[in-house]
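User: I'll paste a sequence; please echo it back and then give the predicted structure.

Assistant: Echoing your sequence first, then the prediction.
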Amino acid sequence: MQNKSQCCGCGACMNACKRKAIVMQEDKEGFLYPQVNKALCNNCNLCKRVCPFLNPHVTKIDDVNIYCAKNKNLYQRINSSSGGIFPIIAYRLFKKGFIVAGAVFDKKWNVVHQIVESKEDIPKLFRSKYVQSNTLNIFKDVKRRLDLGEKVLFSGTPCQSFALKLFLRKKYPNLFVVDIICHGVPSPMVWQKYLQEKSEDYGETKENISQVNFKIKDSSKKYYWRRPGFNILWKSGSEFSSFGNATSYENGFLTNLFVRPSCHNCKIKGISSGSDVTIGDFWGCDVVKPNFEDSNGVSLIFVNTEKGRKLFEEIQCELFFSALDKEEAILHNNKIIICGRPHVNRKKFFKQIDKRLDRLVPELVKVNRFQKMMLRLKLSFNKHLRNK
């Protein structure tokens, strides 16, 4: 793989290859890329026809219905992401006979796409995982289920959702797709390194981790969705907690220090994955819809297709919601239409990856005086808008 900015690592090419000429291999940054065995390849180009970065996509953002919304069920909202919209969709479709495919932690705390078939397992899909999910086994499984007549709800990033659509190569009325507003995906290798180092800090081993959460209340039992907590529990009872995106892993991810190269060159922006519904955080709610702001989370919802519109009508009774126009939606959520830039020290980070992350990330992610001034101006401007 020569140009890594042109591959999102979905694995659709590997799954589509009938001659098994493609394998996915991990590079030194911990990301998967296709490697082609030319002796097996017959140049059928099927791999290219299912690649989300090599196929035309049409921006749909001008043709969709947009809402800010929050789940009326406070427990579901706090224990999910943003305004808790995905639990409503998942449980509603599950009642209609859908199985649900999405990102879960496996026993080694890798993030993988799996199908869950019981109501009790659906919560495993809640909350953001903040690491690239391995989708190498999911596309064939979803297709097999669809071909058997089963109903499938698939959730993933825009590139994963678009890759699934291309891999299937035809429309399935029994498929419902939900994707997310994506910041980018960090390295699974860095994620595992962080878990290992944090375990060592507590005299534990990574194998003894019993629970990982990216959204928790603080010690006073208060929760504010804009400053989420991060928590690791070990089987011995040891516990690590941090709040306000303060860990080295979160800081590195949010500043694009170890995000996948293709995320800075994403081709699937502007609601163009073909998903039925797109969901994400409603950043800027305090400015655009101040009366709708809620410390327990608010979501943006893009209803993209007729299937999406029918479902949204069904779940409205479970939501507080308000319509938005495109400008209101993207004002503080530019990742909907543009890519984030790689951190200036990204290459330096991977050259020094042997250092502990709690030391390396603060060294490379520094806020200079100009950045501090711009942050203060932004906060002042937002306060001014709220008071108008």
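The radius of gyration is 21 Å. The chain has a mean pLDDT of 90.
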